[in-house]
Amino acid sequence: MIDLAQLLVSEFKITQGDLDKAKLYQSKYDGRLEQILVNMGCLTEDDLAPLYSKLLGYSLFEPQNHPNWSIPENATLDVMLRLKSLNCLLVEITDNSWSLACKDPLSLELAQYVQQLNISVNIFVASEAQLQSFFYEIQSNSESNIDDDELTGDEEARLRELASEAPTVNLLNSLITKALARGASDMHLEPHAGRFRVRYRIDGVLHEVEKLAPKMQLPITTRLKILSGMDIAEKRRPQDGKIEMRIANQELDIRVSALPLNDGESIVLRFLLKESIRYDMSVLGLSADTQSLIQQDLVKTTGVILLTGPTGSGKTTTLYTFLNELNRPDVKIITLEDPVEYQLEGVNQVQVNTDIGFDFAAGLRSIVRQDPDIIMVGEIRDAETARIALQSALTGHLVFSTVHTNDAASAYTRLLDLGVEEFLLNAALVSVVAQRLARRLCHHCSKPADNIEELLTRYPLQQVAKNSGIIELNIQQAVGCEQCNGSGFKGRIAINEYLRCDDVIKQIPKNDQFITKAQAHNESLKRRNLMQDGLYKVITGVTTIDEVLRVAG
């Protein structure tokens, strides 16, 4: 058998220091080395199946090979439930042996039970999520399902009991732990094609990771509602909640959203890891020339700087980074957000509450009376908020905010549509930065693109290089390795369009020709639009053409 310690270091990236700590704990208190490392947060529960597979030579369990699984005819329900208590599933019975999928093939209790049955077994190693999907199928054969829109008192009590049972708790923890290990920003749980689908959003792209049994939907949904303070009996209206927990040695805030669907509820979890966020210009990945222009704007003491882009384009993170650059003891910064997702040290952060009439406009009126130097408004959504924000800039404040538009110049037309006067825009706006997020190539495995000549023919890469003063093009392609979970990408990079509200822009009439003329003015100054900045990131080896087309095409 392979040495466990050697395998942990070589295959699972456990440091010698962590291994020594685990061995010291083991010598004092006993216990299994891999379980101690899980408790330390060095391994995840989902690492255990591949670990046991490599250590013992057992095959991994593949649920897709058993799409229509049911309890084998020769097995009693008592046997199935006993195996379930041992975290083991009877997959199949043949003339010569039983096939068992086990979470812990080293379990002494399991070995004793198999010996008691006097059978030959074929062992597969399974994860917690894989087993729980099948266990609920067993449970559904012996219990009625609770799925009425209206719950009686007894049914609600049974739901709470299901949600607090070890299989539900362990499965949910396993899914969250796996999401964190893969660097997911969100987890989506939703009914789909007769199953309960689990998807992770990693670097802005959704990946399907599990298809759980439909019987698991209600216990998991209920568990999440209980943890996030929602009403478990309410399944007809959208709900929002928040969970604070510690998993895999990480402090975690989770925003939970429940949305009723025709065949159940869609639950989305957004993970907020405070330790993992760095509000640093170098992390954003701004192009050097764009960053230089923005730095010039940040030293101003009055005016409005706007970030534009769709939901999920990193606008808030970029604004936080700007605020972090300006955050000093002699500067008072107040933010107005919906919701406050990350705490910024030294910054006064206010959360709007529309239920009591404290919206962005009302909050902004109150903030101005607090004598701030810098104000951040999470989003300009209406005419009153827009007007107050711009007027605040004229009375000695530097204001940051966001609007939802496709490019930088469109921010003007959006604010005009909200009813802001043209003279106010010309007087208050300092600059507008449009942004998208593209996946960053994994630097461990990317390699020079195979089709460079084709790309040079189809896209104006050479023109972008010439305008940017780049002589040598470095066009890379995604490959995939262990570091990036085989995707070829790790992390994201900002793609930006910068529009300074200079004298030329102020003199252009804000009519239906404004966007075209503003873009032409930017081009005359050799400032890139979103697509061109994306191509700039391609020729510098940061991302790929396909990524740029996906987010800015």
The CATH topology label of the largest domain is: Rossmann fold
| Number of strand segments | 19
Largest sheet: 7 strands, mixed
Fourth-tier CATH superfamily name of the largest domain: P-loop containing nucleotide triphosphate hydrolases
Distance between the termini: 53 Å
Number of helices: 23
Structural class by helix and strand composition: alpha/beta
Rg (CA only): 28 Å
Q: Characterize the overall form.
A: globular
Mean pLDDT: 87
Beta percentage is: 15-25%
Number of domains: 3
Helix % is: 40-55%
Strand line-up in the sheet with most strands? 13-12-14-15-11-16-19
The CATH architecture of the largest domain can be given as 3-Layer(aba) Sandwich
Spans where pLDDT lies below 50 across 5 or more residues: 142-150
CATH class of the largest domain, please? Alpha Beta
Task: Using brief descriptors, characterize the structure shown.
553 residues, alpha/beta, GMP Synthetase, Chain A, domain 3, Beta-Lactamase, Rossmann fold, 3 domains, seven-stranded mixed sheet, six-stranded antiparallel sheet, 23 helices, 19 strands, Type II secretion system protein GspE, ATP hydrolysis activity, ATP binding
